[in-house]
Automatic annotation (TrEMBL):
The keyword Disulfide bond applies. InterPro entries: FAD/NAD-bd_sf, FAD/NAD-binding_dom, Ferredoxin-NADP_redctase_2, Pyr_nucl-diS_OxRdtase_2_AS. One of its GO terms (molecular function) is thioredoxin-disulfide reductase (NADPH) activity. This is Thioredoxin reductase. Keywords: Disulfide bond, FAD, Flavoprotein, Oxidoreductase, Redox-active center. Residues 6-294 form the FAD/NAD(P)-binding domain. It holds the Pfam family Pyr_redox_2. The gene is trxB_3. The keyword Disulfide bond applies.
Length: 322
């Protein structure tokens, strides 16, 4: 038997959970397919000091706190991925572990994952000195030496930001020329406290046996020689991959795969489908901005349903949602 919901949310991070909270408070009885790794990318983070009002909370606790709030108001969570989806007609159809579901509205909040170097040592030391967000994790390395890997805006920007926090920054890029914008390149050229190692490819991250990063081994592209760089932290900044593949047959995406939304809203090119969080955000990628866009998506979803006479508004008079 096919189960129907007014609103189905796909994802398991701050955007999805906040969308579930707001949709539940609006009486939309949302069903959230949070996948097999609930909490999203933020669940892998340690202490968070930049989430307003909750200083020091860790990523997993942040996710579970929002999830619990949403559950209290009637949201349902499915510990399952969505394997198939059809957005070409309404009601929308999707398939999870327990079979087929239909929905009047779909909110896509599947997030984006940091691209990785693909090294076994990177995986082994993830969270033990290997990080992917300077804003999130930079203060952990105060006074220590770190290596930033990458050559685009993200890498150069993180190197410039980290030099005010850590003891020493070394920037490694596989090419001699950086792909970052002109302003960032000029700032890097003027930053005498950042060591630039180019062209060089990361061969290994050292410290697996020690249980924490102790250095980075690079291969110099010009002559093939190996060089070991001292480091207690490694920030990999080689881009992000939005989890949008399942939706690309229907939803417009940019060249990197991020879902395109209408300016000022979370609406996609398909009426009734909204996108929130990192899957539609190539720029900020913060827990607080993801949560905010989840709120927006739920409000946009309610307004969409009201406008098409799927429901009557004003389900929470003391806190009206539209």
């Amino acid at each position: 038997m096919t189960a129907h919901a007014k609103v189905v949310i796909i994802g398991g991070g701050p955007a999805a959970y906040t969308a579930a909270l707001y949709a539940a408070r609006a009486g939309l009885e949302p069903v959230c397919f949070e996948g097999f790794n609930s909490g999203g990318q933020i669940a892998r983070s340690g202490r968070l000091d930049n989430y307003p009002g909750l200083p020091g909370i860790n990523g997993a606790d942040l996710g579970s706190t929002i999830r619990d709030q949403a559950t209290e108001y009637g949201a349902t969570f499915e510990f399952s991925d969505v394997f198939e989806i059809e957005l070409g007609s309404t009601p929308f159809r999707l398939t999870g572990m327990d079979g087929e579901h239909t929905a009047d509205v779909v909110i896509v909040a599947t997030g984006a994952a940091s691209r990785k170097l693909g090294l076994p040592s990177e995986e082994a030391l993830d969270g033990k000195g290997v990080a992917y967000c300077a804003i999130c994790d930079g203060p952990v390395f105060a006074g220590k030496s770190v290596v930033v890997v990458g050559g685009g805006d993200a890498a150069v920007g993180e190197a410039l930001a980290l030099r005010h926090v850590v003891g020493k920054v070394t920037l490694v890029h596989r090419r001699t020329a950086f792909r970052a914008g002109a302003v960032l390149r000029a700032a890097l050229a003027a930053a005498t406290d950042i060591e630039v190692v180019t062209p060089a490819v990361v061969e290994d991250i050292l410290g697996v046996e020690a249980g924490g990063v102790t250095g980075v081994r690079v291969r110099m592209v010009d002559d093939g020689t190996l060089r070991d760089l001292d480091a207690e932290g490694v920030f990999v900044a080689i881009g992000h991959e939005p989890a949008s593949q399942l939706f690309q047959p229907w939803l417009k995406c940019d060249g990197s795969g991020f879902i395109i939304t209408e300016p000022g809203t979370t609406a996609t090119n398909v009426p009734g489908v909204f996108a929130a969080g990192d899957v539609a955000d190539p720029r900020y990628r913060q827990a607080v901005t993801a949560a905010a866009s989840g709120c927006q998506a739920a409000i946009d979803a309610e307004r969409y349903l009201v406008g098409r006479d799927f429901l009557t508004a004003a389900t929470d008079p003391s806190h009206p949602t539209i």
